[in-house]
């Protein structure tokens, strides 16, 4: 038979509601995101400000 391909899950992001201030540490961001029921999080630049975005597969 042919080769089977596995589907990649899409990632949905949501800005953290609990993270305060500029985001410089992905580790801190991920910790806050876990309190918001997200499995992971990372810092991203939004215009000129670094913000914490929580992520999950959707």
From TrEMBL:
<feature type="domain" description="Knottins-like">
    <location>
        <begin position="11"/>
        <end position="58"/>
    </location>
</feature>
<keyword id="KW-1015">Disulfide bond</keyword>
<dbReference type="Pfam" id="PF00304">
    <property type="entry name" value="Gamma-thionin"/>
</dbReference>
<protein>
    <recommendedName>
        <fullName>Knottins-like domain-containing protein</fullName>
    </recommendedName>
</protein>
<dbReference type="InterPro" id="IPR036574">
    <property type="entry name" value="Scorpion_toxin-like_sf"/>
</dbReference>
<dbReference type="InterPro" id="IPR003614">
    <property type="entry name" value="Knottins"/>
</dbReference>
<dbReference type="InterPro" id="IPR008176">
    <property type="entry name" value="Defensin_plant"/>
</dbReference>
<dbReference type="GO" id="GO:0006952">
    <property type="term" value="P:defense response"/>
</dbReference>
């Amino acid at each position: 038979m042919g080769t089977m391909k596995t589907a990649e899950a899409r990632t949905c992001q949501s800005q953290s509601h609990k993270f305060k201030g500029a985001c410089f540490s992905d580790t801190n961001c991920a910790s806050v995101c876990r309190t918001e029921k997200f499995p992971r999080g990372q810092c991203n630049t939004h215009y000129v400000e670094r913000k914490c975005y929580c992520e999950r597969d959707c």
